[in-house]
Structures are given as structure tokens and as C-alpha cells.
Amino acid sequence: MDWEGDLTHVNVFTVDRGSSAYRPFQLFHLAEVLLLFLNQIFWHDGVFWETPATWRKNDMPLPAVVLLSGGLDSATTAAIAKSEGFDLCALTIDYGQRHRFELEAARRVAKMLDVVRHEVLRIDLGAFGASALTAAIEVPKDRGDEEMGHGIPVTYVPARNTVMLSMALAFAEAVGAADIFIGVNAVDYSGYPDCRPEFIEAFERTANLATKAGVEGTLKFVVHAPLIRLTKAEIIRRGTELGVDYGLTHSCYDPGADGLSCGHCDACRLRLRGFAEAGQRDPIAYR
Ligand SMILES: [Zn+2]
Questions:
Q1: What's the 234 CA to ligand 1 centre distance in angstroms?
Q2: Which range marks the domain in which residue 22 is found?
Q3: Crossing angle of helices 232-241/266-277, nearest 10°?
Q4: Which of 257, 251, 258 is nearest to 275 (CA)?
């Protein structure tokens, strides 16, 4: 059967349409019309329209863009994406952090997870100031659970996750990846508005409205936030199951010049408590 054919060549057969011998040709017509119809649906410009679902069917790994900060959460998220069979394209945003240790950790984690590509982009959110992570504002220390659980802390970086997801989306569209992974968590960081499920869902809608691949339907973007409802202890247990070496990661907002974690900022406290609750020892060193 000719997939590219049309109905006209069937007419070369000279059969009396009144005879019973014509019946097989009627069926042939029907089959060909059906095939032309399927052709219209599944073929695009004469080339099979390759969708991620098709790649999956052919057992080819799909690319996924993973935001990799070098912290515990993003390392776990990347390991989850890898365990789901994706080829990882890691994206690290150098947004003008107070220190470089996170970026070094991101490179170590990318190596550990054998990513196919790692881009480190410099986007200086520090130029705007207004965050303890990018400006000369003191990082809060030894805050209790009550205090950490309320309000938006000064370690919030204005619109950081929107900026990061936008860059991840650009990377994803460029490499033909429909899947974007981000390690946000709404349990421990309930104060950050851009870590909430509502934000992730809204960004996913934006991704499909804002891109050529989205509006033409060649990619249906999905923003995965697999840690969003997990506690720190659950995240650590999941990562440990997947073989994540947390000794390569860095979480502290305010490390010493030697890179050692302070043990007192919100990030250190949540991390230490997470390991304690998971019944594990945190492999990194503290001051
Ligand atoms: Zn710290």
C-alpha cells in the first residue's frame, strides 16, 4: 500500500462495477481512504511527526532540562529525572550569589549524574539588590521553626524562580525537551511564593502559550516539581535510594571563606534537621 498515494491510481483497474469481482476493490478503496485519513493525522509535511511519545515508544531517551543549583533539593530532583529515563540537560543560573561554592557543587553534581549537557548562565539578579542572598544584607541565623514558617524571609530573591524557569524553558525549547524539572519545595519554604504548586501550574500554562513549540503543538511542556510536597527527610531518603552523594552538594546561605557551612542559617538548619529525621548523617562539613 502506497502511503503517499492518492485515490486516482486505483482507477487503472478495469473492473465492471456491477460484478461481484468489484467488491474487493471497494474494500481496497475503503482501506486507502482510511490510510489517507491516518496519514493526515500522523504525518506532518510528509515526515513522520516526531513527538516525545514517539521517541519514548522507540526507547530513545528523552531530553529534559533540570535546574541544578548545587543544593540538596536540585541534586535529588535531577536524580529523579534521570531515574525516569531522561537525558539530562542541566542548567545552573549564576545569579550573583554571595559565594561561589554552590556553583562548584552544581558542577560536581552534574558530573555525578552524567548529564549530557551543562550550561552555567550568568544572570546578575544582584544588580537589583533587595535580597540577603545577593546583596550586603545579613543572612538570618538560628531562627526557630515558628519564625521560619511565617512570612517571606530576606533570603527571598525577587522573582528568582520565574527568571530561572524562563531560562529553563528557553533551553528546553531549543533542545526539543518537553520536560522541565525544578526542585522547589512548598513544605519547608512555605514563605517563598515561587515555590508553591499554584506558581508551577501557572508557569506550565505560560510555557505552552509563550513558545513556538507550545502553540504549534510540537512540544507539550510539563514542569515537574517532584519534591514540592515532600519534607526534607523524605527528600533525603528518596535521594539516598537513588544513590545521590549528598557530600557533593552545598546548601548554606552564608559559608565561610573555606566553603564550610555555617550550620545556623535557614538552609543549614533545615538540612541538618532533614538528615536527623531521615536517620542519616549529613556528609558535608560544618564550621
Ligand atoms: Zn548556613
A1: 21
A2: 15-48
A3: 60
A4: 251
From CA 33, how far away is CA 125, in angstroms rounded?
A: 58
**pTM score:** 0.78
Helix residue ranges per DSSP H, the chain: 23-42, 52-57, 72-83, 101-112, 145-148, 160-175, 197-210, 212-216, 232-241, 266-277
Rg, C-alpha atoms of the chain:
26
Give residue 253 CA to ligand 1 midpoint distance, Å. 5
CA of 11 to the centre of ligand 1 (A): 79
Contact of 175 with 63, CB cutoff 8 Å: yes
Residue 131 CA to ligand 1 centre (angstroms): 16
2 is a domain residue: no
pLDDT in tens, 65-102: 999 999 999 999 999 999 999 999 999 999 877 678 99
Residues 31 and 121 in one domain: no
One domain for residues 215 and 166: yes
DSSP 45: T
Tell whether 187 is covered by a domain: yes
User: Are 90 and 34 contained in the same domain?
Assistant: no
Structural domain total, the chain: 2
Please write the tens of the pLDDT for every residue from 90-136: 999 998 776 789 999 999 999 999 999 999 999 988 888 767 667 67
Calculate how far, in angstroms, residue 261's C-alpha sits from the geometric centre of ligand 1. 5
Let me know if 104 is exposed, middle or buried by CB neighbors in 10 A (0-12, 13-18, 19+): middle
- 269 located within any domain: yes
CATH of the domain at 177: 3.40.50.620
- CA 74 / ligand 1 centre spacing (Å): 17
